[in-house]
Design a protein that fits this description.
alpha/beta; Rossmann fold; 3 domains; five-stranded parallel sheet; five-stranded mixed sheet; 17 strands
Length: about 450
């Protein structure tokens, strides 16, 4: 994977800070709507019109720009092959991608470059198309790729014991189709060409590793890249519209599943707009915290805190020092129970599609017990299933926070629609299952 690694200062000052544009493109020309890289929905060089697709519309604009003698200084996003020159080679590359021919795509990769827990952006190249891949299987990435239809292309992955075997048993957990490469969500052992103890990379022609950008990102990525294996990082659990859209559409492009990715983005945005529209009518904004591990509350920068914020909550622990950690252990900080906090929302992968009433009750008792000293422990705790698309977790969180505004019936209907469209033929009776546990349906 070739890179344009911007310095840490440049990344922070240019790519991450929303108020500063990456590339300024003049808007007084007659070339449609050329855009800035950070404003593009699909952040790929050559996508000059900034929509979700690399297609013939971009070819038409590129031809006009080149005919008019424009340069990279005028239109940096037009430089599809990143050679610093706008010419027929850029048009040829976009045409090759449209035709599905082997080529190299330059794009934004999400990455925590400096390890501070916040997202950075990095311009990198990836060999196209990806027909064989492996990934380090955090639960968020498992369900994300599954929903995008990236299944047969996955030749190996890591996963732990809590992931849903009822959901992935015939795909990622089937050793005849997908080799288990370990249990870590942040690394895949790679030595002498072997991933784990497997020769899957050479045997299956693997060209890329897919990873999440955050704490579950591939920690030994440099080893893979040094051996010619591209590492593509996405925002599999982010609800920021820009990050959600680019990540899904980049996967759709690289794996040639553009229509599926586009439909998935539309579905996510429809549900997100539904949630925001409903909770905007709340008379009181709920102060809440999230939890994703036993006896811990998530920090402000955690994805799980992001879920409840998208669901309309105010972060109840903004005055607490997390010491740079993603979670705060309540046994060590009992003063957290004195915070002005209405609700705690637990997100747990154990509440899944192979659930039973007995297993749900067992997990409810386990996760809520850590917070028994909290004054609102009985009525203020909720447990939400973690092995489903992030947008559904946000929707169920909105039910927990604002049950008078967001109904479980409406969210279940969205859940059923997602299963029908994006679960690769699997069928589940969502109405008979329980993905939002609370005292009223547990006691």
């Amino acid at each position: 994977m070739d890179k344009k690694i911007l310095s840490a200062i440049a990344v922070v000052a240019i790519l991450v800070v929303a108020s500063v544009s990456i590339y300024l493109v003049t808007g007084d020309d007659d070339h449609g709507e050329p855009t800035e890289l950070d404003k593009a929905e699909l952040k790929v060089y050559g996508n000059i019109n900034g929509d979700r697709f690399l297609d013939n519309d971009d070819v038409a604009v590129l031809n006009d720009i080149i005919k008019d003698g424009k340069t990279v200084d005028d239109y940096p996003l037009a430089d599809a092959n990143q050679d610093g020159i706008l010419n027929q080679s850029d048009v040829d590359l976009v045409n090759d991608v449209i035709d599905g021919k082997k080529s190299t795509i330059w794009h934004i990769n999400y990455f925590d470059i400096d390890g501070d827990g916040t997202m950075d952006e990095q311009v990198e190249s990836t060999k196209f198309p990806i027909t064989a891949t492996i990934f380090n299987g955090s639960s968020n990435l498992l369900i994300y790729l599954f929903n995008l239809g990236i299944v047969d292309e996955v030749k190996g992955c890591t996963y732990g014991s809590t992931a849903d075997k009822g959901l992935f048993g015939t795909t990622y957990f089937n050793p005849d189709k997908c080799v288990k490469l370990g249990t870590s969500s942040s690394s895949i052992t790679f030595e002498d060409g072997k991933a784990g103890s497997s020769n899957v990379i050479a045997e299956e022609g693997v060209t890329a590793v897919i990873s999440n950008w955050n704490r579950a990102q591939l920690s030994n990525w440099e080893t893979f890249e040094a051996n010619g294996i591209d590492v593509v990082r996405v925002a599999a659990s982010d609800m920021d519209v820009s990050q959600l859209t680019h990540s899904a559409m980049l996967m759709g492009l690289l794996f040639q599943k553009v229509d599926r990715a586009n439909s998935y983005v539309d579905m996510n945005l429809e549900i997100l707009n539904y949630i925001h529209g409903k909770v905007s009518g709340a008379k009181k904004v709920m102060k809440a915290a999230a939890s994703s591990s036993d006896g811990n509350l998530s920090s402000a920068t955690s994805d799980y805190t992001g879920f409840i914020l998208e669901a309309g909550a105010e972060f109840a622990l903004k005055d607490f020092d997390f010491g740079g950690n993603s979670g705060l252990k309540v046994a060590d900080r009992p003063d957290v129970f004195l915070a002005d906090m209405d609700k705690i929302v637990h997100f747990r992968t154990n509440i899944s599609y192979d659930q039973t009433a007995e297993s749900n009750k067992s997990y409810w008792d386990k996760y809520t017990a850590y917070f028994s000293d909290w004054k609102n422990a009985e009525e203020g705790q909720y447990v939400i299933g973690g092995t489903m698309p992030v947008i559904l977790r946000v929707a169920y969180a909105a039910v927990a926070l604002y049950p008078d505004l967001v109904t479980i019936e409406e969210v279940n209907d969205y859940h059923k629609e997602i299963v029908e469209k994006f679960y690769n033929g699997l069928e589940f009776d969502i109405d008979s299952m329980n993905f939002l546990l609370y005292s009223g349906n547990m006691n």
